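A.,

Following up on our hallway conversation. Structure tokens first:
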């Protein structure tokens, strides 16, 4: 029995050693952090039951692994410790109980007052130490194994948030500042987009990216990475009696000397207030601009910290209350292929259900066959699934050491999984496509869903299941059949009823009166989004003009290039498509038509003519769509992504990668109120102009 327990202990130690190597030496973790934490927890439990089994080389006795070759090594004057973890409220209350018990042991009276704690979001990055001599940065090092790290001074000097010399006055002659280097989420997304566009390997998560960026031997690469430093403690300090005696106050002093500290940091009384803080931050986690994996609670009084001291790996005065992990391991059961509106065949991973990022996940997108190849995914593999924030779950890595011998590579489909028609991959495209168009059942359902959607014909009351049922029972074969549906058929459908059927019929009726731009958009022509549909409507004024337009004419439309022009040409050359459009018009779908020359001359005089805008983030006084249409009414072009051609980016709250890109490209950024006053001025100009013209 004991032998088995010991063998189990050895197996856990071996696994932890291997993972330490992948994590600290290779910057390429082979398992998710949550799995690592669980193994470490198991090790600690076994070792606490059998303390005689604790060996000096046990992974519980160290905080990391040897630093990587290639950088100079630095010995930390004071060891850089890691933190113990709490996984629920009970663990946290137990921590508080231990703190109080220990403090009362060394005192002649019981500790009755609640302990004062500093609460800090736990940034998921790389711990570093910066040493300042007489106010000047002299060394920066990674934590490494806690005793020795790597000299990354050159690299750290490239970060804007690292003071090269301290501000103000009153700093000790020697001051060691510790903190976390991390990459904000928007920067991570933007970097991965850039790497993918160049066909380079992308990073799995912001933490690995920060680690990879910091350990570049060429500091010019680090300089290009959007890294930030947030200070969270001090290390070795000469004449430390000049510093405040509370952790919270020390961090504010560091802020005065030029360091960034976390704006969410709070000081609270008692452990229940710590739990409240945890709940509040947990609910805001997905809205923060950076990733956090928990909350750190620290006893605020330095004197109490000293009395509490340390155990082997961690201080007794601090604890990290972890959030549900954003990466977990699970089994890949199978890969299904779904067919979208344009016939794109997309692989979807069906997973053994796993709790990750706060929800149970059983499906994850795989994008396309290239992604499957990049991941080297096999059926039966164990994979790492990541769900960060509200982002769609993603398979980020295969755990190769767990691949069973029987695992089979995933085959590229040769026929459409829905209609069994042929699939092809166009040159330069990542997606496989079913070529059967609207004779493929999946594409019809998606085409109808798109047709009824809000920005298209805006027909409320038809969900995917109902569209599917209508198509499967042969009640509709294409979008025009929607207008022939009657009350009896609709009311008899599942999840419908009399009232919903009537509402749907009146929505259908109302939708008949639309605009040419919306109608064009709702047809679902490939590559023709809202903006292009609008340009086409403005340019041609009448549907008949578009139907007969040749390639030269189409290329003269704003924003229409050869690919889009060919798609449009191809679309209107299809006989069945033209029949459906006729049927729609016969059913009563109509829009105002106009003389394009007249409109264009009006357009030429609009104040934002020739200006390109992008709107991002959350606006407070109107929706993004409302602002976009106001800008368009004033002649602006509103694009969905920032490029060199963008004149203005309107950035609301929590603007992400678009804001970073705009800053990179030196595009003028407007906040909401600046954008609104620009619009108000332009409206004033237009009304003056109209008065003159009328
Ligand atoms: C992070 N990662 O944000 C500590 N940390 O304190 C904060 N880490 C820490 N504190 C002592 N906020 C050891 C580690």
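Then the amino acids I'd put at each of the 694 positions:
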């Amino acid at each position: 029995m004991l032998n088995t327990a010991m063998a189990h202990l050895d197996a856990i130690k071996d696994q932890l050693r291997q993972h330490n190597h992948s994590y600290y030496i290779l910057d390429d973790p082979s398992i998710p952090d949550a799995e690592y934490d669980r193994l470490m927890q198991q090790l600690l439990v076994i070792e606490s039951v059998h303390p005689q089994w604790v060996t000096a080389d046990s992974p519980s006795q160290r905080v990391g692994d040897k630093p990587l070759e290639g950088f100079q090594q630095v010995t930390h004057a004071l060891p850089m410790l890691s933190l113990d973890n709490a996984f629920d409220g009970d663990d946290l209350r137990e921590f508080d109980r231990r703190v109080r018990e220990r403090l009362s042991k060394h005192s002649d009276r019981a500790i009755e007052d609640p302990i004062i704690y500093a609460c800090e979001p736990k940034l998921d990055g790389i711990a570093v130490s910066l040493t300042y001599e007489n106010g000047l940065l002299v060394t920066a090092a990674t934590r490494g194994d806690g005793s020795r790290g790597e000299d990354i001074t050159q690299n750290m000097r490239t970060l804007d948030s690292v003071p090269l010399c301290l501000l103000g006055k009153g700093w000790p002659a020697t001051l060691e500042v510790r903190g976390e280097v991390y990459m904000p989420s928007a920067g991570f997304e933007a970097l991965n987009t850039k790497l993918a566009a160049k066909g380079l390997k992308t990073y799995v998560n912001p933490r690995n990216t920060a680690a990879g960026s910091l350990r570049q031997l060429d500091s010019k690469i680090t300089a290009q990475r959007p890294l930030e430093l947030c200070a969270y403690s001090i290390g070795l300090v000469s004449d430390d009696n000049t510093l405040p005696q509370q952790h919270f106050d020390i961090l504010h002093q560091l802020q005065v000397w030029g360091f960034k500290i976390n704006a969410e940091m709070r000081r609270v009384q008692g452990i229940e207030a710590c739990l409240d803080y945890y709940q509040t931050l947990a609910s805001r986690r997905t809205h923060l601009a950076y990733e956090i994996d928990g909350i750190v609670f620290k006893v605020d009084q330095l004197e109490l910290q000293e009395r509490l001291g340390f155990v082997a790996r961690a201080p007794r005065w601090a604890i990290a209350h972890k959030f549900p992990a954003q990466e977990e391991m699970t089994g890949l059961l199978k890969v299904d292929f779904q067919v979208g509106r344009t016939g794109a065949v997309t692989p979807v991973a069906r997973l053994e259900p796993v709790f990750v990022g706060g929800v149970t996940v059983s499906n994850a997108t795989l994008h396309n066959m290239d992604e499957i190849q990049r991941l080297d995914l096999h059926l039966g593999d164990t994979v790492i699934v990541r769900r960060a924030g509200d982002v769609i779950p993603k398979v980020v890595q295969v755990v190769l050491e767990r691949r069973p011998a029987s695992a089979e590579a995933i085959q590229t489909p040769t026929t459409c999984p829905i209609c069994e028609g042929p699939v092809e991959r166009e040159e330069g495209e990542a997606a496989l496509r079913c070529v059967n168009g609207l004779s493929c059942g999946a594409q019809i359902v998606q085409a109808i869903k798109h047709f009824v959607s809000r920005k298209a014909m805006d027909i409320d009351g038809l969900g995917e299941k109902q569209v599917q049922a209508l198509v499967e029972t042969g009640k509709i074969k294409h979008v025009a059949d929607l207008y022939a549906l009657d009350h009896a058929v609709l009311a008899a459908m599942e999840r419908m009823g009399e009232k919903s059927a009537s509402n749907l019929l009146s929505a259908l009726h109302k939708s008949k009166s639309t605009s040419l731009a919306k109608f064009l958009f709702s047809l679902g022509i490939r590559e023709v989004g809202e903006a292009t549909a609008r340009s086409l409507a403005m340019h041609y004024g009448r549907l008949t003009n578009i139907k007969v337009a040749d390639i030269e004419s189409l290329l003269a439309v704003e924003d229409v290039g050869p690919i889009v022009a060919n798609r449009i040409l191809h679309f209107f050359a299809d006989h069945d498509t033209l029949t459906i459009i006729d049927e729609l018009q016969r059913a009563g779908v109509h829009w105002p038509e106009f003389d394009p020359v007249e409109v264009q001359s009006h357009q030429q005089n609009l104040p934002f003519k020739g200006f390109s805008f992008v709107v991002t983030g959350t606006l407070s006084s109107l929706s993004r769509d409302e602002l976009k249409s106001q800008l368009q009414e004033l002649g602006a072009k509103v694009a969905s992504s920032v490029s060199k051609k963008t004149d203005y980016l309107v950035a609301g709250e929590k603007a992400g990668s678009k804001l970073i890109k705009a800053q990179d490209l030196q595009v003028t950024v407007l906040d909401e109120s600046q954008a609104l006053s620009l619009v108000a001025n332009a409206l004033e100009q237009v009304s003056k102009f109209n008065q003159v013209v009328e």
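Residues 689-694 have pLDDT under 50 and may be disordered. Curious whether your intuition agrees with the design.

B.
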